Write a sequence for this structure.
């Protein structure tokens, strides 16, 4: 039917051009931004899923930094105790030397002088939590005091993923030779000025080494655990990012093909629309 008021062919062509142009615009937007989803209207469900995945990624990336900080803290404590071990081994060497009966009083005094200075350094490293002797510091805090109360490390993206590490501060006043009440010699009273005192000092140093070894085993176990935690976080983060990328990222091969196809459809539709608009000229031919 020929009609002046309603050009059905033109309406169809207009609708087709509009649809093709919308798809062309969408393809060009995705190619220019690199994102398949640029608004919620593009893929509402996909956007929600990707947002949740990206939230997990941000949490795990932060947790990875937390794990590194936690490892540094525990390694600092372990390093301090390693130095205490080195000092204690030297103290045992001095005590064993002093226990030998060939030493003169001058020799014993010299051995005791070094033993006493080493004892002072151990006290400084371990600390007692007071303002005068806070001990080894980490980030401005009393390191062994913090570990004594337990430190919570956030090692995951959820609030429940927490690692608590507790390593009680070594009570140097309680380190003794184990001889019992009344005859006990502790680290503070140990002396190398006599052979008897030197033998007692050997037992005291052995007790100190045992305490240090216990703390270092706790720290080492948790350092190893954090290493595995870091590896797992890196693996999960990588795969979660890949999953979010499959939802959010543009597939350039697909969108390039879509853009080319829609460009052709817009051009073809425009040409057809031009031809359809000429149909009204046929009416004029009938009226001549």
């Amino acid at each position: 039917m020929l009609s002046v008021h309603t050009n059905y062919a033109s309406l169809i062509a207009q609708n087709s051009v509009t649809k093709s142009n919308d798809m062309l615009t969408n393809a060009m937007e995705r190619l220019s931004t690199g994102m398949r989803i640029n608004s919620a209207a593009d893929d509402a469900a996909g956007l929600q899923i990707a947002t949740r995945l990206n939230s997990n990624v941000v949490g795990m990336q932060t947790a990875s930094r937390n794990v590194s900080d936690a490892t540094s803290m525990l390694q600092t404590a372990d390093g301090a105790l390693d130095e205490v071990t080195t000092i204690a081994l030297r103290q045992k060497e001095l005590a064993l030397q002093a226990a030998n009966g060939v030493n003169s009083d001058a020799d014993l005094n010299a051995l005791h002088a070094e033993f006493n200075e080493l004892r002072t350094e151990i006290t400084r490293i371990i600390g007692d939590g007071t303002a005068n002797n806070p001990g080894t510091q980490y980030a401005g805090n009393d390191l062994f005091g913090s570990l004594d109360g337990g430190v919570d490390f956030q090692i995951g993206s959820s609030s429940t993923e927490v690692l608590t590490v507790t390593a009680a501060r070594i009570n140097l006043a309680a380190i003794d030779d184990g001889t019992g009440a009344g005859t006990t010699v502790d680290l503070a009273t140990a002396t190398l000025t006599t052979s008897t005192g030197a033998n007692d000092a050997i037992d005291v140093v052995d007790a100190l080494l045992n305490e240090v070894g216990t703390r270092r085993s706790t720290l080492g176990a948790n350092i190893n655990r954090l290493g595995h935690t870091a590896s797992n976080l890196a693996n999960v983060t990588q795969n979660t990012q890949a999953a979010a990328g499959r939802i959010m990222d543009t597939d350039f091969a697909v969108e390039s093909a879509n853009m080319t196809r829609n460009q052709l459809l817009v051009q073809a539709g425009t040409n057809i629309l031009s031809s359809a608009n000429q149909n009204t000229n046929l009416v004029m031919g009938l009226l001549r």
